Amino acid sequence: MRVAIQGELGSNSHMAALKVFAEDLPEAGAPELLPCALSAEVFERLADGAAAIAVLPIENSLHGSVFEHYDLLLESNARVVGETQLRIRHNVIAAPGVKLADVKRVMSHPVALSQCRRWLREHAGIAATPFYDTAGSVKQLMAQGLTDCAGIAPELAARQYGAEILVGGIEDHRENYTRFYVLTAGHFAAETSADKASLAFSLEHRSGSLIEALEVLRGGGMNLTKIESRPVPGKPWEYVFFVDLRFEEVAHLDQALTALTGRCVMVKELGRYRAAGME
Questions:
Q1: Mean pLDDT over residues 210-216, rounded?
Q2: Cβ–Cβ < 8 Å for 197, 271
Q3: N or C: which end of the chain has fewer CB within 10 A?
């Protein structure tokens, strides 16, 4: 099965995809991964049928939501059919034989660099350079034979590209998790054991409209676990709200959606799925 991921092989998205298949789709065997440098490309691979599913980061427990991915999800026909959570561990990785004393520069995704500030302060002589991807930084230094440079990336990146870990676990906070959506373009049947849903809705620009919508969800027995707002292009100070809901009965969700539709300008169900547990 072909799976599109955001990032290079060896990235956290790669690890999340392996976790999804090991825990939720063991009968499917090992996935064939399609690395995508741009997030928009992930949705393109779903739309053109090159990938059956995609695994995409949507939220980090320290950094917050990935806003671009909410926007892309709203614009596309992709559907959320699952989620998984992955503990994020950052490592200093370099070519074989390179010592930490040799390293003058570390490369990684800006979010990863921001999560390793303590280590970077303690090693002020090493310059931090933003790069498009964590695993991509290791791929780059190995391809170019760099001996004064290291990447900050997952352990899998070292194995993927034949590099070595110089320092493990340099993240500032151990409780660092990323939540990933599992997306399809309609290739999978709906999750029969779903207990969570993701929705997007927009409202009339008037006083109390958001409270009214949330009251509909509360009255339907929904447990609101997350709410996020994104601006509506071309309509200053108007917003699309993204919410995650937990529910006990699918019928309750369907009733709440019907009631919500009557109070909103737009309602889109992004998907319903089984909530992921912590590692």
A1: 88
A2: yes
A3: C
Give the number of C-alpha atoms closer than 13 A to the C-alpha of residue 111, restricted to the C-beta side.
Answer: 19
Confidence of residue 26 (pLDDT cuts 50, 70, 90): low
d(CA 195, CA 172): 33
Helix H or strand E segment including 59? strand 53-60
Decide if 180 is catalytic. Answer: yes
Q: What is the pLDDT of residue 263?
A: 87
Of the residues 21, 43, 131, 180, only one is catalytic, namely 180
* Alpha-carbon distances of 192 from 79, 195, 230, rounded to whole Å: 15, 9, 30
Residue 31's alpha-carbon distances to 9, 13, 28, 267, in angstroms, are 12, 13, 8, 33
The catalytic residue among 84, 134, 178, 184 is 178
225 part of the active site: no
Go through the domains of the chain in sequence order and give each one's CATH number: 2-86+176-184 (3.40.190.10), 91-167 (3.40.190.10), 196-273 (3.30.70.260)
Give residue 235's pLDDT band: very low, low, confident or very high (50, 70, 90).
Answer: confident
Q: Would you state the pLDDT for residue 22?
A: 87
